[in-house]
Amino acid sequence: xxxxxxxxxxxxxxxxxxxxxxxxxxxxIDSKNGGGxxxxxxxxxxxxxxxxxxxxxxxxxxxEYRHLCAYCVRRCTEDNNKLSKTYRCCKCHIIxxxxxxxxxxxxxxxxESGECLVLACLVRANFQVFEGDQDxxxxxxxxxxxxxxxxxxxxxxxxxxxxxLHDNNQQEKKMASPFPNVEWEVLDALYTCSSxxxxxxxxLYYDHAINALCDVMIxxxxxxDNNDNDCAPSQxxxxxxxxxxxxxxxxxxxxGCGHAVTDVSASLGCQCLGRALFLEHSFYNHACSPNAYFSxxxxxxxxxxxxxxxxxxxxxxxxxGESVTISYIPTSGLDCTxxxxxxxxxxxxxxxxxxxxxxxxxxxxxxDHVALPVGHEVDVLRNMQYECNQELLTLIDECKYSPxxxxxxxxxxxxxxxxxIQMNKRGIHNQNIPGSHEVSIESHRLNAAALSLSGDAESAxxxxxxxxxxVQNILRIFDPVAYATSLNEYAAALEKVGDCSRRDEIISxxxxxxxxxxxxxxxxxxxxxxxxxxxxxxxxxxxxHSNI
Length: 548
What we know:
disordered C terminus
């Protein structure tokens, strides 16, 4: 990319950032990392500052979460003492629409713009190309559609419907868009992952599958046009956007710049709901010790549009001119080698952030706390923990954290979990895994959860304290909201043993982390505030200026 083209893109991005009401950051040339585009601070940023909010272009929810609104990811909530109604499209079986988005005209847009038809054809094409089970119902076939493919098709269609269909003055189908305006030039400026698939065989399979998917979709759409379906646009322009070249371009941007849609209020291990593309949030550099935090706000209706909002908050003081960074991978206590491998596999670059380069004393100290020994078998330990976590989530859901509600079968399953965790701990000890590495920390969290479920609150408190001390060593590379979630569980255990003073201290620490990373108005923070029972502001002020 020549300098003139780069400058043109930067001007376009900065116009979009300005429209997003951001006066704190701007796009610039990243001369240190190959001359690409990154976002820098226009002024000194303080820990907890709200940097930027923007809306998603589109969303691709995972199959198990498609009962949520496909446009803003809101759940059914209490509205005037009545449960708000979510509309589930019975034609495409992919889209659900919450009551708020219905009032914005989204249901009509979905049905009349052609999106419903396109997604129904996607379900049929996906089933044919990937040779699904012939006995599946259409609803079951819809669940087979991958979230990244769904997101790609939805972006392709929305762009085409707004830029091409409307520009051609097709007044009979033109309607007011219920969505925030999109700067489509910014989409073109996004990084595009050029190689989809880790191996040549995977790349070949992807190319063949997407070619076939596009061909089958076009065939189905044209067939529908020939049947003069009322939902179909009046001209056969499907090939202008549903083709392999356009699909590859958007799919590459989804993979390279898409964000996970996460619900931080859900249990750890159940927080990722799908993927979305936020244009203004797509130019941050990566750092394993980031100075900013990305979060989704499902309950936010401040824009007045049917859209999912995401925010960036500053979590470490950042100087004017410094790059604003987020982490592209979960910050959970991995060592440098693991982090670099995940980034190379997922994003095709060698991380050279401060934490990985270890030029500073804090980075060297952190690596000492997480570096794995030669010959480790940490993936075996992770698999054990994953299976145990899934079993615990099931048990917790069944008994709502009440040990007295466990039946004989559940108590037996819980005992197996406790035994598995002890075996896992022995494996960690025998392999000399550092105490602040991800799997060591997770063993404490799982054991605390299992012990709480068994009714042994005192032992659970000890495990929570071990978790807390281990995370303190690596705070710069640990997710502040995940930390706060575990601290909240720690506080609940302390309350059970009657240590209310320590409980308030731990809740204060949790609130500090959440307020900094998510903002003071996030629903997750508000739910944590309620546990302070009338003493939130007094307790919180003790930690307001602490540098966690």
